[in-house]
Amino acid sequence: MAFVLSGRKNLTALFIFLAVFFIYLHTLNPVFHANDSPETAACAVTLGIQHPPGYPLASLLGKLFTFIPAGNPGFRVNLMAAFCGASAAAVLFLVIALIFKRKENMAPVYAASAAAALMFAATYTVWSESLSSKGGIYTLNALMFLLSVFFLLKWEKTGDTRGFYMAAFIYGVSLGNHWESMAVVLPGILVYVLLVFKKMKLPAEKIFKRTSAAFLFALPGIMLYLYLVIRSNSGALLNWGNPADLKQLLWVVFRGQYTDMEKARDIAVIIKQSSRVLSHLANEMTPAGLLLAVTGAAAVFISGRKKELALFGVILITVCGALSLYFNLKDEMIWIMDVFMIPAYAAMAVFSAAAVLWLADKAGKKIPPAVLAAAFFAIPVFMVLSGYRKADQSRYYYNYDFGMNIIKSVDSPGIALLEGDFNVMPQMYFKYVTGKTNFCPVTTLFLYVPWGIDNLKRECPGVLLNPGKNFNYSQKIDNLMANNYRTSDIYVSVFREAFKEFYPAGNNMLAPNGLVMKFTRDAKGNLSNAEANLKKLSYRNVYYDKLYMNNTTEFCVSNYSSAFTELGNAFRDLNMDAKAVYYLERAAELATPPVKAETLTHLGVLYSKLLRYNDAIKVYLEAIRLKPSVIEAYSNLAGVYNNIKEYDKAIDICAKGIKQNDGFAEVYNNMAIAYYYKGNKQKAIELLTKSLSLNPDSVMARQNLEIIKKDTGGR
Questions:
Q1: Residue 142 is part of which domain span?
Q2: 405 and 379 share a domain?
Q3: What angle do CA 260, 266, 271 make, to 5 degrees?
Q4: What CA dihedral angle connects 696, 701, 703 and 705, to 10 degrees?
C-alpha cells in the first residue's frame, strides 16, 4: 500500500511538472526580455560575470542549457527559467503532501497539494519570471528554497540527519546565486530547525556538532563566488565589477553599486512599498486564494502544527517586512521588488492547502470531496485563463528588435555611448553571442569607475580614454569626445533632454540619426540619412500594450517617439513644415504616457505656427489631461486662445497653469495679453511685471509691457 501511495505521489509531482512546463513552454520568450535578460543570456553563453552579486550559479547552470539543440542561445537559457519554475511547483507539491501526510486516505492531501502547487505556478510573478533568462535567477532560487524545505521536513519526519545536511548543502548552493533573496527566508528556516531540535530533545553538545556540520555542508555553495575571481582573472568577456581580488569581489557580492537604493528611507517610501506588497498578496493568488491562505494559517495554528506555522509564517513576515523596509525605490523602479515575493507565494500556497483540508474534514460527508477538489482546482484554472495574455511572452521580440534598431541606426564602426539597461544589455548579447554589433558599445555608467575604464580599454582597444583620477562624469565624457572625435563617429542612445543631464557641453552637437543621436559639426546633421534609418527599423510589438506593464519597458518604448520628435523638430527649424508635421504626428502616435504630454506640446507649437488652431487646441488639452504639470501646454494654449480672440478661455487656462506652477514666466505674459484685449490694462501691467521678475531676459514680455505703458500714458 505504501508503495502504491508513494508511486501515486511521484506520478502526481511529475504530472505537475509536465503540465506547468507545457504552459511555460508555450508562453516562453523567443530570445530575451527587457532589462537584465540579454546580459544573463550573454553571461551564460560566455561564462561572464553579471551585475552584482554576480550570479555564478545561474551562469554555470545556464551554460549547460546552452548545449540544448533548440532555438537560439537566448531561448535555451530561457528554458532554464521554465525548467526551474516548473520544478519548483512540483517540489512544492511534495512539500505540502509531506506536511499533511496521513496514515490513510492520502487522496485529499494529494489533491489539495496539487491545486496549491498549481496556484503558486500560475501567479503572475512566478509565471513571468519562468519565461526569460533573467527570471531564471529567481525561479532557480525558488527551487533551491523549496528543496531545502523538503529535506528539512524529511529530516523531521524520519530523524535521518542526512536530510538536515542535504538541506544545508542546497541552501548553501542557493546563496551562490542571489544570496539576498535566500537570506530573507533564513529566519523562518532557523526557527523551524530550533523547534525540531527542541522536539528531538538533543543535548546542546550534539546540537552544536550537527549545526557545525551543516555549516560545512553549506560552505561549498558559498564558495561558488570564488568562481567570479577565477573568471575575472582568466579573460571573461563580460566582467562586471572586475572582481579579480578580494576587495572587488566583496564589492560585487555585497552589491556596492546599489547602495543608493538600499539605504536611508522615509515613512512615505515605506508606505508605498508596503502597499505594493499588500496588493500583491491580495491579487497574485486571487482574493479567494488570499482568503484560503488566511484561513489555512489559522487552521495550522489550531491543529498545533507549530513548526510548520513558524516556518512559513516567519517567511511570510520576513519577506513582506524586508521588502517594505529594506529598499528605497523610486516610483518608476518599484517593480524591482516583485520577484522577491516568490517565497511568500509558496507560503500562501501551503496555507491554502491547509484550509482546503480543514474544510474537507469539517464538511465530512455533507460536501462530496470531488466538489471541494473541483472548487479548489477552479482557482488555478481561473488564474491561468485570466493571466495567460498578460504573462505570454511568446511574441515578445521587442527588446531584441530595440537592440537591433540601435545597430541599424549606427552607420559606421564608431563609438556608441549607451545609457540605461534597455540600451546596454541587448548590445552585450549582440556583441558577445551573435557578433552583430558593428561598433564599440561604451556603457556610460562604467565611466564612473576604474574597472569600467579598464574593461573598455580591453574590449575596445581602438577607443582612446585617459581621464584623470578626479574627473567627474561630464569630464570623462568630454575626455572621450576630445580623444576620439576626429577618428571615430560617435553616437548616443539617449535623446537630447536626457543626454544634457550628464553631458551638457555636447548637447548642441547632437543630430537625429534614427534611434540614436549622432555628434556632428552640423547641428542638423544628415536628415535624409536619419529618415532612411527610421524606415529601416523594426516596429514589432511597439504598439502592444503588454509592453507597458513595467515602467522601465515603457520608458524604453518612448525612445521611438523621441527619435521622431528629434527629426520633426529638426525639419521644423528648417521651415520644412510638411515633413515636420509628419514626424511629430508619428511621434505622438508612438509616445507612451510618461512622454506623450511633452510630445503633444511640441506638435501643438507646429500646429500654431501653421495656423491650425483647432488642432493645436486639441493636442494641448490632451497634453494637460495626460500630465497636468506640463506648464508649457497651458501657456501655449493660452496663446492660441489669444490668437482666436477667446480671451476668457485664455485667462482661465493660465489660471489653471499657475496653480500647477507659479514660476513659469511665459504663462503670465499670455495671461497679460488676454487682459489687455479685454480692456483691463492695469491687470496686464501687473502680470507682465510678474513675468519679468521671473525672467528678466524675456524680450517679448518687455516689449509688451512697453507697448501697454505707452498706451496708458506711461502709467
A1: 2-391
A2: no
A3: 110
A4: -100
Identify the sign of the CA torsion 493, 496, 500, 504. Answer: positive
Indicate if the alpha-carbon torsion angle 25, 30, 31, 36 is positive or negative: negative
Whole-prediction pTM: 0.88
Please report which residue ranges of 264-418 form alpha helices under DSSP H.
267-283, 286-302, 306-325, 342-363, 369-391, 398-409
What is d(CA 89, CA 349) in angstroms, rounded to the nearest whole number?
A: 10
DSSP string, 398-411: HHHHHHHHHHHH--
Placement of cell 521651415 in the chain: 575
100 part of a folded domain? yes
- Residues 406, 380 share a domain: no
Distance CA 508, CA 519 (A): 9
C-alpha–C-alpha distance, residues 682 and 708, integer Å:
9
Residues 366 and 409 in one domain: no
Decide if 611 contacts 599 (C-beta within 8 A): no
Final residue of a structural domain among 541, 567, 597: 541
Question: Residue 649 falls within a domain, yes or no?
Answer: no
| Residue 641 confidence (pLDDT) | 96
- pLDDT tens, 455-494? 888 888 888 887 777 787 788 888 888 888 888 899 988 7
SS3 485: coil
Chain mean position to CA 584: 29
Task: Output the nine-digit C-alpha cell for 460.
Answer: 575596445
pLDDT, residue 555, reads 74
Residue 7 shares a structural domain with residue 109: yes
* Residues 19-67 pLDDT 10s: 999 999 999 999 998 889 999 999 999 999 999 999 999 999 999 999 9
Query: Under a CB-based contact definition with an 8 Å cutoff, are residues 390 and 124 in contact?
Result: yes
Phi and psi at residue 55, to the nearest 5°: 50, 55
Angstrom distance (rounded) from CA 555 to CA 329: 17
Residues comprising the chain, all counted: 715
The domain total for the chain is 2
**Which one of 479, 506, 541 terminates a domain?**
541
d(CA 347, CA 314): 9
From the list 459, 466, 432, 453, the residue with the least C-alpha distance to 241 is 453
Residues of the chain with confidence (pLDDT) below 70: 1-6, 259-265, 365, 502, 504-507, 521-524, 543-552, 594, 713-715
